[in-house]
């Protein structure tokens, strides 16, 4: 089976020059907000070091912390479920819904349920699932996946949202005023909240010591859903754990600043035990995370707290859009998580980077993202997933560059060819991708080494 | 002090004037550099493409060529970063460790080994500085906007000390140019777009001479400047510093 490459999807995205500029500038604006918030905290780098160390420590004894968390949650009266993969997770959610005889589910933002493709699964089973995060709701109406993990509808302009709401919510045609559009969504969602029988949430942090889960939102939609519905189901990956409640402050200080430049998310909700007469469930999901934990070079990717800073800073992401990655988590972090899931399908993602390193420098938990991209490239190549022409060319180049004589000869031949061949041939864009946007360097008469050989050499 | 000059493969072939400027500049600063003729490449083009294993013979050849020198000076932070960072794949013999520790970027060498903080001369032009990611984020030759709002760095300081020079203040001080080695052809659309945006930042803010410490970024940006027929001159920093008249 062959897959579309990141490059081909990125090229399609780039056909609309103005829209690409808009997308780039919108996300750069978020990156600048992040910078301002970071510069204002003198101990920010210290916080990054702490967060990184806490996560490293937690991952090093994840089994113990998971057991501690489960026991504490059970003591709180929470039902804890374990899911090895997406299918198990989805089946557990459905069982909980069915056991209550429920059909109406409200869901706050959760990248894990996106990863598990929970929505289509539940809908097929006759359950109504409503995403209550505004961005998520917009793309749900449009039947699109999120293009960013924090700003799921960032690829859409207000005109696009107006057209979507005109179609699905009956707002006036051509309405583009953000406040009016938001109000329309608010009214629509209010009815769904009131009717919700089961509330699903993701989890930002799970605290081993207390057995509680913490959910960060800006819209308060997790709170509203959970407060109104008699059943709360929180889905979390095994890597969401932190040891103690006192560790949480390190992460809440980093998360919102890195994500959107806010000092803290508007709502940081702690869920510890069900209200009297109600149910609370936590589903702990592996779905290939243990496999990643077993890869020493890539283990650190599990430290991710899903702030999205690496997307906002990535010059490639900003100009290719989240959908070009064709994976639940796009951008640099997605490009080191996805090969763990399906190396062949996602083989071009580690190459969708210039390795500029900005992702690593903004990462609040100090994941060495660009180093891992480089390492995944080696694995893609070893697994023979490089395009054949590229592989042959690189092998040839390897032999050439290990031999001074071959290097010298081919260099002088190449320069002469470049001088003699007609422009239309050297700059043919079908065979020479360099020439699509750029001129080739003008080939000089002499290489440096040829020049040097003619210089009078000082006595040594 | 025994100093070797490593002229990156593409500089040797396409930009000999950058190698010449580096060689002559070092001479003016009192360093008679040798040019070991057996040198080829650092292996980065292969390794970044996923063929690190195929690059190992190139690494070994590089170490063999330069192990007898106190410093190996390179007019390209990118190659230096590769030698320092990725030659960890070789068995760490004393020779390998020595070469990794002493392969150094030209501007870094001038600033920190020769301890020259200012060069005499004037350069009455508006100069836009392109920071190479490997030099900046990799070798820490300049501050990073991810960490601090202060725009500072080795080359910026050297240039700022020249008479009559005006440095361009860019909207985005340190965004990647989009060259990225084989990225420039495997992701041609994004690479071209990134380069276009970088050049436009310079045009918008009045750059007359676009310079930097890494010719690979500049080769890409120059290709775009020439395609779009923009009135910008692209020069490696060594060319500016070597051509100074006081």
TrEMBL record, chain A:
<dbReference type="Pfam" id="PF02589">
    <property type="entry name" value="LUD_dom"/>
</dbReference>
<dbReference type="GO" id="GO:0006089">
    <property type="term" value="P:lactate metabolic process"/>
</dbReference>
<keyword id="KW-0249">Electron transport</keyword>
<dbReference type="InterPro" id="IPR003741">
    <property type="entry name" value="LUD_dom"/>
</dbReference>
<feature type="domain" description="4Fe-4S ferredoxin-type">
    <location>
        <begin position="294"/>
        <end position="324"/>
    </location>
</feature>
<dbReference type="GO" id="GO:0051539">
    <property type="term" value="F:4 iron, 4 sulfur cluster binding"/>
</dbReference>
<dbReference type="InterPro" id="IPR037171">
    <property type="entry name" value="NagB/RpiA_transferase-like"/>
</dbReference>
<dbReference type="InterPro" id="IPR017896">
    <property type="entry name" value="4Fe4S_Fe-S-bd"/>
</dbReference>
<keyword id="KW-0813">Transport</keyword>
<protein>
    <submittedName>
        <fullName>Lactate utilization protein</fullName>
    </submittedName>
</protein>
<dbReference type="Pfam" id="PF13183">
    <property type="entry name" value="Fer4_8"/>
</dbReference>
<keyword id="KW-0408">Iron</keyword>
<dbReference type="InterPro" id="IPR017900">
    <property type="entry name" value="4Fe4S_Fe_S_CS"/>
</dbReference>
<keyword id="KW-0479">Metal-binding</keyword>
<keyword id="KW-0677">Repeat</keyword>
<dbReference type="GO" id="GO:0046872">
    <property type="term" value="F:metal ion binding"/>
</dbReference>
<keyword id="KW-0411">Iron-sulfur</keyword>
<dbReference type="InterPro" id="IPR004452">
    <property type="entry name" value="LutB/LldF"/>
</dbReference>
<dbReference type="InterPro" id="IPR024185">
    <property type="entry name" value="FTHF_cligase-like_sf"/>
</dbReference>
<keyword id="KW-0004">4Fe-4S</keyword>
<dbReference type="InterPro" id="IPR009051">
    <property type="entry name" value="Helical_ferredxn"/>
</dbReference>
TrEMBL record, chain B:
<protein>
    <submittedName>
        <fullName>(Fe-S)-binding protein</fullName>
    </submittedName>
</protein>
<dbReference type="GO" id="GO:0005829">
    <property type="term" value="C:cytosol"/>
</dbReference>
<dbReference type="Pfam" id="PF02754">
    <property type="entry name" value="CCG"/>
</dbReference>
<dbReference type="InterPro" id="IPR004017">
    <property type="entry name" value="Cys_rich_dom"/>
</dbReference>
<dbReference type="GO" id="GO:0016491">
    <property type="term" value="F:oxidoreductase activity"/>
</dbReference>
<feature type="domain" description="Cysteine-rich">
    <location>
        <begin position="3"/>
        <end position="83"/>
    </location>
</feature>
<feature type="domain" description="Cysteine-rich">
    <location>
        <begin position="127"/>
        <end position="222"/>
    </location>
</feature>
